[in-house]
Give the backbone structure.
Amino acid sequence: MKLRIILSILTIAVLTNSGVSAHIAEKGEKILIEGSVVAQFITAMTLTKFTGVKRSDIIIVRIDKLITGTEKSRYAITQYRYFDEGKMPLNDLSDASKQWQFEMERDSTCDSTVRNLEDAGRKENREKESSLPYLKRTAGAESEKIPNDTILPCYVLQQRDVKLIEKPK
């Protein structure tokens, strides 16, 4: 009995200190947020131009305001799915000074740390003999302090669910 209690306490301590994020959204739950894209993961495929092809790139979104849904994390790993020649190419999102409204769907199967994603990207780039940097900060977010070892929640963002927020000057 004492061993079971000690193991339970140790498990709680390890989970608390291992970087498990505080997100609470369930798989498939949608959230509506205002935020900015602060980083993009770059691979050789990211830079390859395809005409009329559905793409999926990984970006880091800073959640500045939660409008609907439940999410406690300040950052989210986001699979951005879009058509290469659509109305909202990834390049348009790559400016951290722009505020966007995103409706994103939770996908807990891709929760990860930034460090793990960078390691996987470096491995992929080595296999393809590419010297591309894997994590690229967006313009205006070069000094953003994205946690490397905290597990960030993962969301899927469709091209149709992105809207630029017009701020009064």
In short: Confidence is low (pLDDT under 50) at residues 1-22.
